[in-house]
Structures are given as structure tokens and as C-alpha cells.
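Batch job 17 of 40 flagged for manual review because the log was empty.
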Amino acid sequence: MAVLTQEQSLIKDQASTWVLDKAPVSRFRALRDSDSGRGFTPETFQAMVDMGWTGILVPEQFGGSDLGYLTCGLILEQLGRQLTASPLFASSLVGASAVLLAGNTAQQESLLPGVVSGSAIATLALEESSRHAPVHTAFEARPSGDGFILNGGKTFVAEGRSATHFVVAARTAGNPGEASGISLLLVAADTDGIERFALPTIDSRDHTRLVFNDVRVDSSALLGAVNEGLPALEGILDRARIGLAAEMLGTASQAFDMTLEYLKTRKQFGKVIGSFQALGHRAATLYSLMEQARSCVEAALQALDTGAENVPELASLAKCQVGKFLFRMSNELIQIHGGIGMTDEFDAGLYLKRARVLEASYGNRAFHRDRYATLLGF
């Protein structure tokens, strides 16, 4: 377990208290049932802005606090515990990281203060199918004069309906599957030719399909060097994977706590069911998996903050290990609770549905097992 600074401990405690008091899972249930068409409650996100969470990764010169990825991960873990919906992950981590890693000073000055204030929501538009395969990007950005013409579709874009800017992975040369020829473009969401379509998903979040029809952008939209965007994209994705792993850890840990409480209070045959050896062994195994996952996630977050060379390996390890724990824990949450676990009135189903989406996002366990082995030379 990571050793936290006093400031990090205070922020973690603040996040834990605030989430339980102001954004518990009951608020998410109400959001789901409202059918408002929003992926989050604006008041909830504004409260995060007011607490400074949207600027955790942004340097002070752009209005942020630059407290690092571990601090950001601590907050995301608490949000994951209560299934709190917001653009914090999509914009303040993934979008901000994209501009920080690949953008020039002018692009950073233009967008990052808005990300901090909440007036701008920047999200990554990457996936083109249900399979996570960045190098197989086929979305076309054809050079035209002093700019590009964009055509194609993107799917499962997080917070796509609320976004003000998209970081688009596009192919400017070569063929899908080739490492060279991928470029990153920062595109305003209100640019002519962009259509947005809501994608209903089991976790009731804002996932959007985008269609680009002859969308014209000038050269100032380019993030980094043309045709050489894959290294920066991989850096952005590793930050996304690690941040998402932190949220997944929170979701799985809350599922564990709910299950443990049930084991301590539910009685059968005159005894609490947690006293039965078989259930006790299951709980012990789940606890071990939780602590193993926590170690992987916190090591990856710390590696980002220290600029370690093995961030890609740790990112895949964290996403895979916490994915394994979340899959098993979300199943056990329902199985151990029995019949009540199958009802919509009980929260277990909400955790199971969110778990399945998180497990698939930014690469599932199979993707990251293969990637981890490849990175280690196997």
C-alpha cells in the first residue's frame, strides 16, 4: 500500500466523506431513473470543480494544483465506490493528459484553464468498434491545404454528449495496423459536420457514437507531429488505464465491503453465515485479491508520478489484475446475497453492470495479458 502524504490523506478523507454525503449510489440510481439524457448531474460536477479536483493534474500556470496521478487516483477510487457519475475521469484525467503530453503551449493555454474551471470537457475519441485496438485506427484525416478533412466514426466515446472538445485519433497516412500514420487532433465538438448519437449501455452512463462528415480543421488542431501520434496516444491510454483501474478498485472494494457486512449480519440455522467455513474461505480469498489489486494500482499511479520507464507494463498489470478482482467480486456480491442480489431494488445489480463496462474499457483482461507478456519479451 502506498504511503500517503498528509495532503493526500486529507484529500482522500475529503473525497470519501463528500461522496457518501453528497453523491452516494442512491443519487446515481435517481439519475438512471430520471431518464434525463445526461450522463451526470451538473451540480455534482460543479461541486468537484469547487473542490479543485478538476485541476489535480494540471500545472499551476494553467490554473491547476499539479498534485499528481496518485492523488487523482485516490479521488477516482472513492467515486468508484459509490458509482458517482461525472466527467472527472474522461476530461480532467484523460483529456487533460492528452493535451499535456501531446499539445503545444498555445493549445495548453487555450484548453486547460477551461478543464480546470469545468467550462470545457475534453474527451478521447478512439474506439471504432467493440474491440480495443489503437494501432488499427482507420478513421480518416486527409491532408487538405493548411489542415485536414475528417471522415469516419468513433464509438463508446465517454461523456461524448457533454464534451466541448474531442481528442481524435486519426489515420493521416498508411493502413490500419501500421504504427506510423496515426495523428492526434483536437477538435471542437461544435465543428460543422459532427453528429452525436447516444449509445444506451447497461451502466447507464454517457457513451456516445460520433460521425464525422467532411469535418474541416486547420493545422492548429494537430496535437504533436503528423503521422507520429501513436507513442503519445499510448502514453495517454496508459494514464487512462491506470486511472480507470483506480475507479475499478473503488467499485470492487465497495462490493467487498457490502458482501462482508452481509456475511456478518445475515443469519441461517441460528448463526451468522460468515461463521460458515466455506463462506469464510471465500471472503479471505476475495480480500487477498483486493489487496493484490490495490498494490498493482498504487504502484502504477506512483510510477506515473515518478516518470518510471515501466509505466506501460504496470498499466497493463493494474488493469488486468483489478479487472480480475472486479469480475469475481461483482459476481460474488450477487451470489452471496442470494435472491435479494438479483433484485433491482438492491444495489448489487448496479455494481455488476458498471463492472462489466469498466472491465472492457481501454482493453479487457485478454488484451492486457497479451500486452504485458509482449512488453516483457515473451
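Reviewer: the log was empty due to a logging misconfiguration, but the result itself is present. The chain has three domains: 6-86, 123-228, 234-375. Unflagging and moving on to job 18.
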